[in-house]
Amino acid sequence: MTTLRIAGGRYLTPEMVVETGDVLVDRGTGKIISVGEVEDGEETLDATGCVVMPGLVNAHTHAAMTLLRGYADDEPLESWLREHVWPAEAQLTAEDIRAGTDLALCEMIRSGTTAFCDMYFEEPAVAAAVEEAGLRALLGHGIVTVGKDEEGVAAELEEGLGFAREYRNASTEESVEGESWVRTACMPHSLTTVAEDAIEECVAAAKDLDVPIHYHANETEGEVEPIVSERGIRPLEYADDRGLLGDRALLAHGVHLDDREISLLAERGTGVVHCPASNMKLASGMAPIQDLLDAGVTVGLGTDGAASNNDLDLFDELRDAAMVGKVAADDASAVAAPDVLEMATRGGAELLGFDSGRIEPGRSADLAVVDFSASHLTPVHDLVSHLVYAARGSDVRHTICNGEVLMRDRELTTLDEDAIRTEAQKRAMGLAKRAESG
Amino acid sequence: MTTLRIAGGRYLTPEMVVETGDVLVDRGTGKIISVGEVEDGEETLDATGCVVMPGLVNAHTHAAMTLLRGYADDEPLESWLREHVWPAEAQLTAEDIRAGTDLALCEMIRSGTTAFCDMYFEEPAVAAAVEEAGLRALLGHGIVTVGKDEEGVAAELEEGLGFAREYRNASTEESVEGESWVRTACMPHSLTTVAEDAIEECVAAAKDLDVPIHYHANETEGEVEPIVSERGIRPLEYADDRGLLGDRALLAHGVHLDDREISLLAERGTGVVHCPASNMKLASGMAPIQDLLDAGVTVGLGTDGAASNNDLDLFDELRDAAMVGKVAADDASAVAAPDVLEMATRGGAELLGFDSGRIEPGRSADLAVVDFSASHLTPVHDLVSHLVYAARGSDVRHTICNGEVLMRDRELTTLDEDAIRTEAQKRAMGLAKRAESG
Questions:
Q1: Most CB atoms within 10 A, among A292, A313, B29, B195?
Q2: Is the residue at A423 inside a domain?
Q3: Is there a cis peptide before residue A338, judged by omega within 30 degrees of 0?
Q4: Distance separating alpha carbons of residues B270 and B264, to the nearest angstrom
Q5: Same domain, yes or no: A222 and A370
Q6: Same domain, yes or no, for A163 and A286?
Q7: Is residue B255 part of a domain?
Q8: Mutation site, A318, A342, A376, interface B, largest B CB count within 10 A
Q9: Is the domain of A250 the same as that of A315?
């Protein structure tokens, strides 16, 4: 057993208070041993002038979309999807997905993210990338049935549910130790892109495999309207009828929700992943986050894909969530800094089913060490405020996941960033070329 | 005459296109000599892998409010001002203002800002700080008459207009060369905090001194309503009646504007400084930026003070302006990246009356050199998109103002940042203590 002492700084408690003290980590089990006044470690990681916080959880993304970062900005949503993003995605190979995911992993580790939830294609390539990088992830194939014939739907379900079955490693805390940190979920893409009976198959498979279920819902008005007009009920009432709500379900976006839907989410224990930057950039709207918090819904934060963000730095989402939450609520006291910080740590970890997100003995040692020796983080009246409103990904000095140091003094330890950047650039250019001629 | 060649990279043209080439600067005059294929310089600044862009212009801030960064977040606007910010500001000394401004200058140089507009108190201390740092600034004392007796109003006007008179250096391009880069403006605080006759005195003084006039307007609903109910006209109709509109006028915020007011701004040539982060954080609302652009109004970008932001990194405002502009317009194609970049460079420079904001021969050499060798700026489909949506202040490698290198390879050359941070921390703690006991 090797122990690592993160020493000389301060740390964020589960009560969202910053205390002076160290964090001692067991690198064998990947767990936190003690916090505050701790024993010496066999190894030391300097945290002088820093705040140790739980590693951030990016609870909704499409990692390999880094290849499409800045590919088609400032387009109306429909033409963005139909003329640019979908044609490009149709050209993606497993090698492209691997290259884009590797790039996303570099960016996430650099900005203090230690766990993420990915919905995309070619997920075995994503799983391999995650294992090599050493992050924690909940992965799933985004199952789409719209536009497919019977055979196509069967193949899509087999690919999506097959991945969840094959890569499902463990869903209980005990069996995670020393194993892969990849877990799987069933991920029907959305309420409008997956047929009713295919949704039911996904729900049954998730139950059978004992894995979470993740999907897009109520992101745009244009997604709500057809369900209301066709079925005479709100989308989340439809979701509830199909078994898509429940305490293992997490939906992305939830921008357009009425009071009944918010109550349903609270009653069923279903989580919402808030993606404020993507919702602004695609003009989808502003999610009623304070209402969700008031109702007791667990909220996580996500970047969504890099094409609608355009980065994977969750410190941006911390700031965006607080700011857009206030405008949406017409109240400067809404969606306060500690609530936002909780979404990005404990909230996301709970939704993904990981035992991280809180700095306390026995929890997974998934940590970000944020350096406060910068002008934009001076003076210090309130460290929690600074983490939300003033810090950025580039202030993260070290990133630790499962007790392993993935970034030390801004240097990545598990990934060859230069090679990954070169490969991503090459693959992105090839992809754009094929999409334009295809 | 010394020449400086910024070599090996690319540069942003006034047409918002990125070209490969160098920028040659005359350090004697502080002007750009040539761009693209240029002659050798006596000195060289490496820009390999970088994009040289015009230095950013922070067109509305209260620089010394860095001392109140994170001091009272997540409070409703009224109690934020009355119970926290105003009591703290009442305790500010000239030494505090100097310390807070020095800190702001470090932060601005670090994030590629080369010019700013400051409305605050003790402006001679701000002018001294600006001269030492080597930035360009338009400075003014924020004149407030509300709550003051006749004598108090006279003293306030004397201080505010006296500063504009005394520190007014030059307002024509010819006479700026080799002189101070500090200019002044008359700055009546807002339409609701300055009495009608005092506004008229400010307007007359601005005309007499041939300086701009700058004020807050239409920031919140609560600021619009009293003018409408008392006078039966919209705030900018009132402003127009008092002579506050015109092509030397720039107003901050302009969140709540009706069509008539937008037309008035366009007709009079009055500029608007958009402060998207502050407007979100204080739940003031979302400014109709696409409507202003469509009407032909010159728009600049500002951070506002650090207490309502909480940083002075204009790269955040670039992203915020594009994103919130889309939500406000309910259109993902609104407030596009090149428009936003223009606001933060040429737009702001024009509003402040500086000859910068464009990289072309003869213009002031106020430049930010942005390093693109980072994962979050990979791959490159569109460099302009990356400058707006993905780059952050920490990607700025060098900052140049008036031909002088103020930051080289992330090291400040004119300011002692460690000493400034220590002093700011000390003064901020003293200020908070006095405000709480005062």
A1: A313
A2: no
A3: no
A4: 8
A5: no
A6: yes
A7: yes
A8: A376
A9: yes
Read off the tokens for B223.
């600021």
A283–B331 CB contact, under 8 Å: yes
- A374: nearest CA partner in chain B: B421
Distance from the Cα of B375 to chain A's closest Cα (Å) equals 6
Q: Given CB atoms, is A420 within the 8 Å cutoff of chain B?
A: yes
Q: Could you tell me which chain B residue has the CA closest to the CA of A382?
A: B70
Span A64-123, pLDDT tens digits? 999 999 999 999 888 888 999 999 999 999 999 999 999 999 999 999 999 999 999 999
Question: pLDDT digit string (tens) for B329-380?
Answer: 999 999 999 999 999 999 999 999 999 999 999 999 999 999 999 999 999 9
Whether B378 and B335 share a structural domain: no
- Identify the closest residue of chain A to B313 by CA–CA distance: A376
- For an interface test with A, the pick among B378, B395, B406, B426 (most A C-beta atoms closer than 10 Å) comes out as B378
**A residues 257-296 closer than 8 Å to B (CB):** 277, 279-283, 285-286
Domain extent, residue B398, equals 3-54+364-409
Co-location of B182 and B312 in the same domain: yes
Q: Is residue A179 part of a domain?
A: yes
* Chain B interface, best mutation among A65, A378, A396, A397, by max B CB count within 10 A: A378
Both B126 and B27 in one domain: the answer is: no
Number of domains into which chain A is organized = 2
In CATH, what number is assigned to the domain containing residue B161? Answer: 3.20.20.140
A85 CA to chain B: closest CA distance, Å? 13
B393 interaction partners in chain A (CB closer than 8 Å): 376, 392
CA distance B347 to chain A (A): 20
Minimal Cα–Cα distance from A21 to chain B, Å?
A: 21
* Close Cβ partners of A229 (under 8 Å, ≥ 6 residues apart): none
Closest residue in A to B284 (Cα–Cα): A327
Contact indicator for A290, A332 with CB cutoff of 8 Å: no
The number of residues making up chain B comes to 438
How do the pLDDT tens digits run along chain B, 438 residues long?
Answer: 699 999 999 999 999 999 999 999 999 999 999 999 999 999 999 999 999 999 999 999 999 999 999 999 999 888 888 999 999 999 999 999 999 999 999 999 999 999 999 999 999 999 999 999 999 999 999 999 999 999 999 999 999 999 999 998 643 344 344 445 899 999 999 999 999 999 999 999 999 999 999 999 999 999 999 999 999 999 999 999 999 999 999 999 999 999 999 999 999 999 999 999 999 999 999 999 999 999 999 999 999 999 999 999 999 999 999 999 999 999 999 999 999 999 999 999 999 999 999 999 999 999 999 999 999 999 999 999 999 999 999 999 999 999 999 999 999 999 999 999 999 999 999 999 999 887
Instruction: Identify whether residues A239 and A307 lie together within a single domain.
Output: yes
- The phi-psi region of residue A218 (left if phi > 0; otherwise alpha if psi is between -120 and 50; otherwise beta) is left
Q: Is A271 helix (H, G, I), strand (E, B) or coil?
A: strand
Q: Calculate mean pLDDT across residues A236-259.
A: 97
Question: Exposed, middle or buried: residue A40 (CB in 10 Å: 0-12, 13-18, 19+)?
Answer: exposed
Where are any strands of DSSP class E within B73-212? 113-120, 136-143, 182-184, 187-188
- DSSP letter for B362, please: T
Q: Are residues B296 and B382 in the same domain?
A: no
Task: Output the CA torsion sign for A235, A240, A243, A247.
Answer: positive
Q: Do residues B136 and B401 make contact, with C-beta atoms less than 8 angstroms apart?
A: yes
- Provide the residue count of chain A: 438
For residue B312, what are its two tokens?
């002075």
Chain A residue closest to B105 (CA)? A375
Query: Which of A61, A66, A67, A74 to mutate: most B Cβ within 10 Å?
Result: A74
